Amino acid sequence: MPGLPKLAEINKLNLELAIGGRFGVHLGPESENVLLGNRNLGNPLSDTLLGCRLLLLFTLGAWVVPSLCDENLASEIPSQAEATDFKEGSFRVGVKLTPPFVMRDENSDELIGFSIDIIHEVLADLKLLDEVEYVVHDSIHEHLDAVARGDVELGIAATSVTSQRERQLDFSMPMFNGGLGVVTRRQSGFIPALEAFFSRELVSVALLMVCFLLVCANLVWWTERGEENSFNDRWYVGVGQALMEVVTMASVGYGDFVPRKILSRLLSILVILVGVVLFGSAVGAFTSALTVKKIRSDIRAIGDFDGETVAVVSDSIGKQQMASRHVNLLECADLDGAFAAVKDGRASGFVHDFSILRYHLSRRDKSLVLGEFTFAGHGYAIAFPSKSRYRKKVNVALLEMMEENPSRYARIKKWWFN
Known about the structure:
Layout: H1 4-23, H2 29-36, H3 44-76, H4 80-84, E1 91-96, E2 103-104, E3 111-112, H5 114-125, E4 132-137, H6 140-149, E5 154-156, H7 163-168, E6 170-171, E7 176-185, H8 190-197, H9 200-224, H10 235-251, H11 262-295, E8 309-313, H12 317-322, E9 328-332, H13 335-343, E10 349-353, H14 354-361, E11 368-370, E12 375-380, E13 383-384, H15 391-403, H16 408-417
Parallel strand pairs: 1-4, 1-5, 8-9, 8-10
Antiparallel strand pairs: 2-3, 6-13, 7-10, 7-11, 7-12
């Protein structure tokens, strides 16, 4: 065949490149002549040895050439780790503004907050603080998606650990244990005053005052009864007169019934002194109860919202928790919208993280009040891409912060949540 010598020559050259370069095996004159069609047949032994040699060379070539091609191809395509590596000297940290965990300083516009202080300490221990580059995300979805894609090395804000998030991300140990709280409108008008008047504290003081006056009235009547005094000898009449005398002395200081005996006068002085204390206590109890009614929420448990409209923030754990309860959800885009819904009466309350609610209420008007209970406890953690090489290092650094004495973690937490 006319084309056979040329094809054989090409194969020979390929074998020389593939095998000769790696194993030092080169085709001899006899094999070259066979491949090129110039071999004169006739020696059986020589032909057999040559055939074995060629078979060995072709077998090695069939294995070496594809492997060389794979190596060359692999060297041209970067690995996934190399493709997602950032520029040298950069350690990207994703954050989402969630005061007081992550927020901007009003004067310098720098990022501050509980989570920022924590990650600063951790990265300082890992010798990475000088390489930090913060990436601010606008929403929790954007934040978690960026972490999952590996756009950042880790994400920190006020991120709750849920089963759904755990399927896509890795998380550190909890850096903060929180819970959900409730915001309602502050009470005003006649009803809080009426409730304060019948509060347990005020009723207790009033009963104590009445009992004290009755005891003193009976003692005065017992010492003053007789023909020479103006108190009637009959018990129910005389005690009534003595009670009027005690009340008169404790108020205006004179009246129709005046004690004449020394014991009665001493009792009257005691009534005046103790009466001042009891009356002051009653006023204080009423004022305190009225104040408490105005600054405390009537909601004592989350079940008190059954059948009511409750505001929640989109994509929050508050929405997730309240979705399974017997309430009407009013979904709001942000905290400001949820606070406004409670203030103008569109919602009976607003459910969100207790620490975040407390921080915001301390900086708003006094028309809203935070409930005194928490529910649905959960932990906030640092988020990592799946199988991150930094997760274990960060966990060790966090534990060391918490275990040391004095604890840097306790100091940071006290500063932001005292």
